[in-house]
Specification:
Strand order of the largest sheet: 15-16-18-19
CATH class of one domain: Mainly Alpha
Low-confidence stretches: 1-31, 268-273
Number of strands: 24
CATH topology of one domain: Myeloperoxidase, subunit C
Radius of gyration: 27 Å
């Protein structure tokens, strides 16, 4: 009986939302609005999306049940165990959340200390979820929600903080943060590449998916159309006479997805003091592991690899080359491409968004350029390693190259980037020298780091993208571009000179300097993701709203956390923010220092000596980087990861060497982050040191007893040693399952087992977690599956739900509406009959 009740409880509230989805899909057009582009950039890959959707179903179901329970409690004088633990487990199971609330099953073979899992799971053997993808961000301080569980700060307009309402985030942007493009100050020390590297690394360790639903859970109101706070809609209210106002009073904003089992999902009914406050999910691994290159889930890794290569290569673009060098492959389409096309090129072959380990690779061409360099570096390393070790399988070459690329990400970040951001004194204080792996350290990226502190980099973004010629001068054919001209525009790389002009501009032109009176330029506060005339967004307001959505404690709470003095008066605030005009504007808006949003407070602080952050963000970033290093069992300096000779070679490498090896540049700065003038500050690539890969050469003695077996169809093996014995560990490609022994060992009589086989998984038989929505038919394919629709229905953006193609007459809409209303009425009636009567 309970199972039937749960079914109707969580299906019935979704009927209006389903109807709204159908209507919106009937009206869908090419993606071109800034809000749609933001949604695309926040769109998780399928695994994360499934988890986010499961959490939303569970959350909606629990909220419905809470309402029903409240009615029952009013009727019962002595309520007892209204909702059993079993019932809550049923909800978690049916919604799809339960598997993601349980610890993962860790492998136990001879590779557990050799290669990290693509998901980041089992890095810590005692706490296998620490740092893994699709788990909750860490909380260093308890969240501050207006209802104590999940409501964002600013949700209730009459709610007062220290006697005052929080200011509108857009008002904070207008009065404190934004500055005209012409007024920015350039950094006299650091290049634009420093800013891009920060963005790139942020995309390696953190991605918080926003709600997969585009309409309010109650009533199905479209978040694009409402200015009311109705979960997941948390619109940004606009002040009167705002420059962004285009006939509306707000900007759409979707809340971040809740992690399974948190917020209203985690509430113990009737005892809210024991609830689990809402937590947000990180869709990526927390580790500095080059997931920007390889992804954070097996499904994405499958898309990125070139399975026909014997050298363990990654896929490259099949349609375009950059002077003989590879571009990233194009992402598979899930509907109209969100990326812009070359003006006047109607009918030409489109340049789609690129596919990389992180879905934001096409946001701006400078970021795309860095992603492309690392794709090329992986393939360069894998081919070279395979040439040195002819006995290696393709999977071994892939894993060894992946391990090196991950190590280089760690070295460049911790040796070359972070000290410049924190300054030498703060780096020594918060990070310090490496002392080895510590299994008690949780490396999970913290909410405050991801949502506030590491977003300091937004204040270093230059409003111009500079493209330079071979002499590092302004390019006669490729003029500088305003930032909004390169949003989601990969065609500019393919059709306008390739990577080299962009990389030269990153090396030889300055980043924007973070100045208190010039925090963010108009390209970000007035023209974010502009590809048309259909509105715009404001990155500063998005950051502030996101911090409130996540319930981040205020500026003073974090200062106290870091051992810094709390600021109680205007005079106190002036000691942290030397620009009196800025500090007064902040105090006039917030009325009390405790109310200041942590992102704004940290951003406005005076820099530490030889740093690019103030004391608060230096503390938070430093603590996070130390945790990422100490809590990573596969950190490159850990003794068992590389040999001493390999570590010595890795230390020689640099981002400058990466550029030399993977672009057409022949001269680069020794330190790619230090801005310089050509030719005096640039060095020939012949003089830039790099790794000698000979130290990765393996001596393998073939014998008759244990010769390498034939390759397994749809799988591969990796060679390793265990207790002095030769061992092969087998794995199957994503979409196949292993049948037989995963690990075989060489004995005096030969291999102790026959090689296993890889059998296709029939995903369509999974009744507990069906791969396709009930509106589609599931068709099993080799290594995968396909959701099929009956004409005139087509697959929606999620590639699992059938939506109307738009070819139906308007009368059909009426039929759909009546049908949905009938289903809703029957569901409500059935619930009443089954659960009450």
């Amino acid at each position: 009986m309970d199972r039937l009740c749960v079914y109707f409880i969580f299906v019935y509230p979704q009927v209006p939302g389903i109807l709204s989805d159908i209507i919106r899909n009937l009206k869908r057009r090419e993606i071109n609005s800034p809000t749609q582009l933001l949604s695309f950039s926040k769109l998780p890959e399928p695994t994360s999306r499934a988890i986010s959707r499961a959490a939303e179903i569970m959350e909606t179901s629990v909220q419905v049940m809470k309402r029903k329970v409240d009615l029952k409690l009013k009727q019962l004088q002595h309520p007892t165990d209204v909702l059993s633990e079993d019932l809550l487990n049923i909800i978690a199971n049916i919604s799809g959340c339960l598997p993601y609330m349980l610890p993962p099953k860790c492998p136990n073979n001879c590779l557990v200390n050799k290669y990290r899992l693509i998901t980041g799971a089992c890095n810590n053997r005692d706490h296998p979820r620490w740092g893994a993808s699709n788990t909750a961000l860490a909380r260093w301080l308890p969240p501050v929600y207006e209802d104590g569980i999940s409501q964002p700060k600013g949700w209730n307009h009459n709610y007062l903080y220290n006697g005052f309402p929080l200011p509108l985030v857009r008002e904070v942007t207008r009065q404190v943060i934004q500055v005209s493009n012409e007024a920015v100050t350039e950094d006299d020390q650091y290049s634009d590449l420093l800013m891009v590297w920060g963005q790139y690394i942020d995309h390696d360790i953190a991605f918080t998916p926003q709600s997969t639903s585009k309409a309010a859970f109650w009533g199905g109101i479209d978040c694009q159309l409402t200015c009311e706070n109705q979960n997941p809609c948390f619109p940004i209210q606009l002040p009167i006479n705002d420059s962004l106002t285009t006939g509306t009073q707000c900007l759409p904003f979707y809340r971040s997805s809740a992690a399974c089992g948190t917020g209203d999902q985690g509430a113990v009914f009737g005892n809210f003091s024991a609830s689990n406050p809402r937590q947000q999910m990180n869709g990526l691994t927390s580790f500095l592991d080059a997931s920007t290159v390889y992804g954070s889930t097996p499904a994405l890794e499958k898309l990125l690899r070139n399975w026909s290569s014997e050298d363990g290569l990654l896929r490259v673009n099949a349609r375009y080359r950059d002077g003989g060098r590879a571009y990233l492959p194009f992402a598979p389409r899930r509907g109209p491409s969100p990326c812009a096309q070359e003006p006047g090129a109607a009918g030409a072959e489109p340049v789609d968004c690129f596919l990389a380990g992180d879905g934001r690779a096409s946001e701006v061409i400078s970021l795309t350029a860095v992603h492309t360099l690392w794709l090329r570096e992986h393939n360069r390393l894998a081919a070279a390693l395979r040439a040195l070790n002819a006995h290696w399988s393709a999977d071994t070459a892939y894993q060894e190259a992946r391990k090196i690329v991950g190590a280089l990400h760690q070295i460049i970040t911790m040796r070359d980037y972070i000290p410049k951001i924190l300054g030498p004194e703060a780096f020594q204080r918060y990070v310090g020298p490496y002392k080895g792996y510590d299994s008690t350290v949780n490396p999970t990226v913290s909410n405050v780091f991801s949502t506030a502190a590491f977003r300091f980099g937004h204040a270093t973004i230059h409003p111009l993208v500079r493209r330079l010629d071979a002499h590092f001068q302004e390019h006669p054919d490729l003029p500088r571009l305003q930032l909004h001209d390169v949003f989601f525009s990969p065609w500019r790389l393919v059709k306008e000179g390739g990577l080299d002009p962009v990389v030269r501009g990153l090396l030889a032109r300055s980043a924007k300097l973070q100045v208190q009176g010039q925090l963010m330029n108009e390209e970000l506060t007035e023209k974010l993701f502009v590809l048309s005339n259909s509105g715009t967004l404001d990155l500063a307001s998005l950051n502030l709203q996101r911090g409130r959505d996540h319930g981040l404690p205020g500026y003073n709470e974090w200062r106290e956390f870091c051992g810094l003095p709390r600021l109680g008066t205007q005079a106190d605030l002036d000691t942290a923010i030397a620009n009196r005009s800025v500090s007064e504007k902040i105090m006039n808006l917030y009325k009390h220092p405790d109310n200041i949003d942590v992102w704004l407070g940290g951003l406005a602080e005076d820099f530490l000596p030889r740093a690019r952050t103030g004391p608060l963000f230096a503390c938070i970033i430093g603590k996070q980087m130390k945790a990422l290093r100490e809590g990573d069992r596969f950190w490159w300096e850990n003794n068992h990861i590389f040999t001493e000779a390999q570590r010595h070679e890795l230390e020689k490498h640099s981002l400058s060497r990466i550029i030399c090896d993977n672009s057409g540049l022949t001269r680069v700065p020794v330190d790619a982050f230090q801005v310089g003038k050509s030719p005096q500050d640039f060095e020939s690539c012949e003089n830039i040191p790099g790794m000698n890969l000979d130290v990765w050469r393996e001596i393998f003695h073939q014998d008759d007893k244990c010769s390498f077996p034939d390759k397994v169809d749809n799988g591969d093996f990796v060679y390793c040693d265990e207790s002095g014995k030769r061992v092969l560990v087998y794995s199957c490609h994503h979409g196949y399952e292993l049948q037989g022994q995963e690990q075989i060992t060489c004995t005096d009589k030969g291999w102790d087992f026959q090689p296993p086989i890889c059998k296709d998984i029939n995903e369509c038989k999974d009744l507990m977690d069906p791969p396709c929505h009930a509106s589609a038919k599931c068709k099993n394919t080799k290594g995968s599956f396909q959701c099929v629709c009956v004409d005139p229905y087509v697959l929606g953006e999620d590639q699992r739900t059938c939506v109307d193609s738009g070819r139906l007459a308007k009368a059909s809409l009426v039929s759909i509406a009546l049908g949905a209303a009938l289903v809703g009425g029957l569901a409500a009636l059935t619930w009443t009959v089954i659960c009450r009567w």
